[in-house]
## 1
Amino acid sequence: MLDHIDHIGIAVTDVENAITLYTTLGLRVSHDETVPTQGARAVFLSAPHGPDIELLGALGDDTPVGKFLAKRGPGMHHICYAVPNLATAVATCIANGYEMIDPTPRIGAKGKPLAFIHPKAMGGVLIELYEANNL
């Protein structure tokens, strides 16, 4: 069902500072948008090989990323796996008893459909499933 790691999400308190840190290491900003439905600014950084890094800055304290930062501080927020068919992946997760944050996919950054598996179902790790059109 899972094809590859698409990106690793990192919650940050200062997006501009985080961009500087990662671009100094050689990554390049490939996408930057505000995602009101997620209450976050999402900045994707690409490396020549491997998954992207998604920096997530909270748009407010009461947003999912804001609450994450208040509870856990900055750091890894989620791992995102690309799947060829999101509806099938979500149905498979539900059929196998995984608790879904998004039992119905929604649109996220880059306008792509996504669904999150609850960390309780994955040993404490928030997993994002992301439909990749180029698989």
Note: The chain has a mean pLDDT of 94.
## 2
Amino acid sequence: MTIQNLMIESKLFKGTREEYLQKAKEELNARVFKQAGYEIPDVKISCSWALGTAVKNKKTLGQCVPRSWSKANINEIMIVPTVDDSVEVIDTLAHELVHAIDDCESGHGAGFKKICMAVGLNGASKMTQACAGDELKATIKDIVKDIGLYPHNELKINQRKKQTTRMLKVSCTECDFSYRTSRKNIGNMANHICNGCGEETLIEETEMSF
């Protein structure tokens, strides 16, 4: 069955994205992980951007953080909002759940690979890209048929326009008064009198971009 046909046959999940992801986790736990001898720990899952350096990698589809990062001592998983295909979302979730079981201790090394192979994620040399093999993908499609489609539409971050205006910070050397303006406005300043303290102490401090 193609993904297109799956989308036609499946209905949109009636609930939030987080409820969908938790439901998908429960189905993966029952149909895949327990069958392979693994139990998924308590974990929170959300549709959000990855943290830290991972956010700069446009190929990052999901992220799991270790329990030590959480005050509640649980793993947290983020599925990025650029992904909206239901099968791909659950496939990505399965990858991140392996990290949760391992508590991110192995990275994408031997411990991670061992669990991946057991649950049906491929054993490619680049385990950073480990995704569902044929058997697991068939199970994921069955899950989508049963629980419905992921209630989310892709966010296209490449549509964001780059801002080209460069703003300069002007500040007072005597008080806390400051503001940002264009180089043209600075060039047209008739004086350097501070609106805060009234002294002629305004200077161009640093270049800012936003």
Note: The two ends are 47 Å apart (CA to CA).
## 3
Amino acid sequence: MPQPDFSIYNNSWYSSGRSRFIEALWFFIGLPILRSRLIPSSSLRAGVLRLFGAKLGKGVVFKPGVRIKYPWLFSVGDYSWVGEDVWIDNLALVSIGANVCVSQGAYLCTGNHNWSDPAFGLFVKPIELEDGAWIGGRVVICPGVRVEQCGVVVAGSVVTKDVLAFEIHFGNPARLLRRREFHI
């Protein structure tokens, strides 16, 4: 029976869309500023992200400890929050709408490996969080997932499939709990 053979692994097809020099500037200068717990200013974090190509709306909040692999593959709408220690592992575009909350410790992963490929080939797929979505603490969002308008993912869940508008999902793998309703 065939087994993985990492000696034939090849992801040379992948490009972040920027030069190695820009990647190095980000990793050695931009990312440490973004992650720093000594810098209380969310607006400074947003400014550094914009400098490196992120598309950010107004009033976006970035808490300390946030890690973003490639800011040029990242966009966020107005008044969204990205909590402490969120890791956006974006080999592909991660798009976050307006008024979205990504809670502390969440992990958004756009890349993985094909476990049926002996070469363990890399694949990448974008992630989209639409307006009003709420991603709970320590949630894992897998490649290619879309959380539609006002969708909610409960803390600690692992999302492998899309979350439809106004649905609340929980568990591993995440599944429908109930509809989200607003009481005004």
Note: The two ends are 60 Å apart (CA to CA).
